[in-house]
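Why does residue order matter? Because the sequence determines the fold. Keep that principle in mind as you read this record.
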Amino acid sequence: MTREELKAAAVAMLDRAYIPYSHFPVGAALECSDGTVFTGCNIENASFGPTICAERTAVAKAVSEGHRDFVRIVIAGRSRELCVPCGVCRQVLREFAPNIEIICLNGAGEERTFTLEELLPHSFGPEYLQ
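Structure:
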């Protein structure tokens, strides 16, 4: 999948977000090393704690289908600022893909690419538990 197609897949998920409380849609498109793509959107909950972010939705879908080797993810929002992953999502991405490319978009389609190391320096990973 091209970079533009991956970005379009993430943006398409914005309309599927369940956001009755924050009204802040987020879409994600996660690409696996074999080219398979899993998409996700944020799904809010009235008690807030069970809310799941778009990135974690995509990761959960991928892992539940047997994929664990991720190469890049696009995270799209409609805000003026870039839509970057929250701390929990950064840690979940770290679990499976410490070298993942993270492409963040804002509502105007502007983008910036990050490494996970830039967003989560000195991270804790599975190797610490071996």
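The chain has one domain: 1-126.
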